[in-house]
Amino acid sequence: MQNTLAQAAIFRGTGLHSGAPVTMVVRPAAADHGIWFRRTDVASNARIAARWDSVVPSKLCTLIANGAGVSVSTIEHIMAALAGSAIHNAEIEIDGPEVPILDGSSAPFVAGILAAGIVAQDEPVRALRVLKPVEVRDGLAVARLEPADMLEIDFAIDFTDAAIGKQTKRLNMSNGAFVRELSDSRTFCRNDEVEAMQARGLALGGTLENAVVFDGDRILSPGGLRHKDEPVRHKMLDAVGDLSLAGGPILGRYTGIRAGHALTNRLLRALFATPGAWVWVDVTRSTGAKLPGVGVHAADLPACA
């Protein structure tokens, strides 16, 4: 069955890039509604579908826009939280152009969703089943989807910074794995990247409290890492959010090698453009039990949430 929230969940913080205060309210929605954003600070054409074909190319985050040019950026962490909590329908009201960064992970969003409660709706979940492999590349970066019985994610990163280095991780995303294993992993960057972005008027809301900042072999953020492989876990978190823009859960294996937001969106576009590579299916009871977020409860949340 599809799910929505039992009541609204409210989040207040600042945008990572703008540094501006923002309030976001995630409200329940009817079955088959999907996930939509609505800019409450915009008088008309305020609604934007959280869907792969609404994505506007952006190097630093996932940004969606409607035909009138109204946009919302940095949606990947709330989208991952919704997908990882098995929320299929929600109306997200936001009074600015950027989702609050909070602590740089999805854990505060998951905590708010679970506190609001989850209710089942009397309609089956439609999932996107991958039927044959589809792959996109950009230099050394690779993103691929191939058939599997449930969502699996296999990710690899390779950074010259000694504190990051090479990291790989593979997860079966069923049975609350997202909430337990990925939700608390924070966005990360190099110290010189922060300085360069802020010089260009970006990352104005970035602090050592909402991102893991690396400088060679040093971790500048207080308290260090939440996981020894937190960077690759965060990349997987981003992938969960970006893949959710397919419009429903994906039954397939995602492989990312040095992949980012733009490449994952290119992959979804390639998938939908490839005849015979996908099909929408009504999820059966046995398959539904394997979807991300099914059976999640507050005890699954990491301590930081």
Tell me what the structure shows.
The mean pLDDT is 93. α1 crosses α5 (230-243) and α5 packs parallel to α6. With 305 residues, this protein is α+β, with helices and mostly antiparallel strands. It has helices at residues 76-84, 107-116, 177-182, 191-199, 230-243, 261-273, 285-288; strands spanning 2-5, 9-14, 21-28, 35-39, 47-49, 55-56, 63-65, 71-73, 90-94, 118-121, 126-130, 134-138, 141-146, 152-158, 166-172, 188-190, 212-215, 218-219, 250-251, 253-257, 278-282. The protein is built from 7 helices and 21 strands. It is globular and about 50 Å long. The strands form 6 sheets. The chain has a 5-stranded mixed sheet. A 5-stranded mixed sheet has the order 12-13-20-14-15, covered by helices on one side. The protein has 2 domains: 2-121, lpxc deacetylase, domain 1 (Ribosomal Protein S5, domain 2, 2-Layer Sandwich); 126-300, lpxc deacetylase, domain 2 (lpxc deacetylase, domain 1), CATH 3.30.1700.10. The chain starts with a strand and ends in a 17-residue tail after the last helix.
